[in-house]
Amino acid sequence: MFRRDTTAEACFRLDVRTWLEANLPPALRNRTTRPLPDELMPWYHALSRKGWIAPHWSQKYGGMGATLNEQIIMTEELGRIGAPHLPVQGLNHIGPILMEFANEAQKARHLPPILAGTVIWAQGYSEPGAGSDLASLTTRAVLEGDHFVVNGQKIWTTWGHHSDWMFALVRTDPQAQPRQAGISFLLIDLHSPGIRIRPIKTIAGDDEFSEVFFDDVRVPAENLVGKLHDGWRIANALLGHERLATSNPQFSLMALERIKIMARASGIMADPAFQDRLAAISINVTALAALFSHAVELTNEQRSPGPESSIIKIFGSELLQDLNVLLVEAAGGLATVDRPIETEFGEVDVATPFLQARRVTIYGGSSEIQRNVVARRVLNLPN
Amino acid sequence: MELHLTSEQMLLRDSATKFVAAAGAKVARGFRDGVQSFAPSRLREAGELGWLGILVPESAGGLGLGLTELALVLEQAGRGLVCEPIGLAAISSAALAQGPNPHPMLEQAMSGTALVVPALQESGYGGNPFQPRARLTTQGGASRVTGKKLFVCADGAEGFLVSASSANGPVICYVARNAPGTTLSALQTVDGRKLSTLTLTDAPADIIPPNASSKNAVEALHNLALVALSAELLGVMEKAQETTFDYLRIRKQFGKLIGSFQALQHKSVDIYIRTEATRSLVFQIAANNTPYRIDPALAAAVKAKASDDALVVTQACIQLHGGIGFTDEHEIGLYLKRAMMLSSLHGNAAAQRREYVALAGLTE
Questions:
Q1: Which one of A108, A234, A245, A376 has the lowest number of neighbouring Cβ atoms within 10 Å?
Q2: CA distance A3 to A83
Q3: CA of B209: how far to CAs of A68, B83, B98, B101, B173, in Å?
Q4: Hey, what domains does chain A have and what are their CATH numbers?
Q5: Is B242 in CB contact (< 8 Å) with chain A?
Q6: CB contact under 8 A, B265 and A288
Q7: Chain B contacts of A368, Cβ < 8 Å?
Q8: ipTM of this model?
Q9: pLDDT digits over A139-188, tens only?
Q10: Which domains does chain B possess?
């Protein structure tokens, strides 16, 4: 968005664009709801075979080892064609964490299936009694010989019922003070006996979430990542990755395109008052892209953006909601239709993305919690 | 977030920080009721440091640097409420340096011994900066310009870079302050500076050629002005919010530091987010554009965002200070007034958004 491509980058962009046009099935383009695994995973596998599934992973671990500019080009091209939202818990969350904190055996076992798309991962953090107050989690793991025995419940597990493995925060020391010092980071095979998974239907009509129940589940001790009781530090490193990844401007750019189509179809595009709002929000999408490029730049320099990455999560998620509010306004009377709307400029889904966008200021730490974190840890305001 | 800078860029920023340490709210306050709204000696000092020629090619005696360096200096100038018009002088020098033979005023402009400022604006609400109503005519090799320019920072200026339409399209021309057919009438601003209306009637003018990479000289100078003003606005909001956060850490009410109250913490984070977003936008645009060919949609975008955010941030800073923030005695009000001034120049946020709709092809 900001820079002009060098000759080599322009070639790369053309390669990506041409390949995406030829290989991304039209039925998977511009979807507002994530397709189910049967439909989506063949696309994941195709990207994997092409070697493009993990642009940000180093070649040492089988990734593309792409430069920052190549990563941004890929993001822009995936957004341009309206590529579907892949399951990213493996690629963006547990993958980078394993590279940083896991032993060699764990890396060798778990990284290749993420690249190949043969294993789908879920994140096990939130619990019914531990949402914003994550450190109060109570899912218990007791070490008995060479196994942990896990009992408890996780909730809001994205794609839990489609997943094979979960990386979970579990309580290994109930007496620890502070509470954070009694939490460990455990990899759990979701096909183990004693696990029950129930999908949760959302207000948007999909069942992206589920709840996962653990009843005397035996997990080999070798599945502990890092040291016992040291899970909180790992979890926090992971939250940084998550905040950055979920604020990728690709989704805002796609939302902006939907607004433009809807506004032309409804006729509101000719209204100067609407144009002013569209300009303002489009400028904020540009600002999000600038924040994101800036943060990726620092990450690539091995200077983790740290707690400041919270601001990108807040800005990006609230912007996505504002975009969907404007989409509803552009659609006027059609906004309440609960299926994609046919227009002369193409099909636009309005109500579904609007409803879905309610979740983005809640997951990964609500906007209010993020503001608490920034106030204390970045602005150094008193307790 | 910290910027990704070279060691040379960090040195430049350090030297700007030192320059600014001698400025600040107290100095800015001193100029409010004065005859002149800045210190000519400080402008010469900025010239000696090379900043007024920061974009001027080395072959013409300048530093030959880019937009990132310009933005780093102007960010500091904004932080220090510096009253010398460093940004306007630096972009004018950059324009004067173009063509096979730089304009005779370049050397004085670059050294800060003579101030040259842009005179581009023709309408209060922005108008169309790329198609000036001022007319330039050329007869027998001599050019003359007729028109009216608004909101010119003419205080202490020796000459102006005026945008005009000519038989060959939009041009920038140099007009001396004391040239025949030139009149100025000044308005006092809340910021203590004066903004003038420049009326030109057949005033003698020298055409300033565009840089080879520019679409035309008018677009190049206008977009450069937008980026320069945005960088300065960024500095204003940064320093205003830091001053405010410092206050939240010492002021007590209900027996507690007020910075511990969640309502004030969240408001603080809101303004911090605005400042950081503007900051990333300014420096991403600076890093990826050359001074004479800035993407016009991005220039409008950054000026819209910086103007909007600077006003929101500085107003919130007054609210967070409470009653003391409303007094003339407290310095926080000076940041709001500087933000009002800079955000209004060359088209405020609303004017930029109106331009942006067309420049970004939003309705297509």
A1: A108
A2: 23
A3: 37, 30, 6, 10, 8
A4: 7-86 (no CATH), 120-230 (2.40.110.10), 247-378 (1.20.140.10)
A5: no
A6: no
A7: 266
A8: 0.95
A9: 999 999 999 999 999 999 999 999 999 999 999 999 999 999 999 999 99
A10: 7-114 (1.10.540.10), 118-208 (2.40.110.10), 217-359 (1.20.140.10)
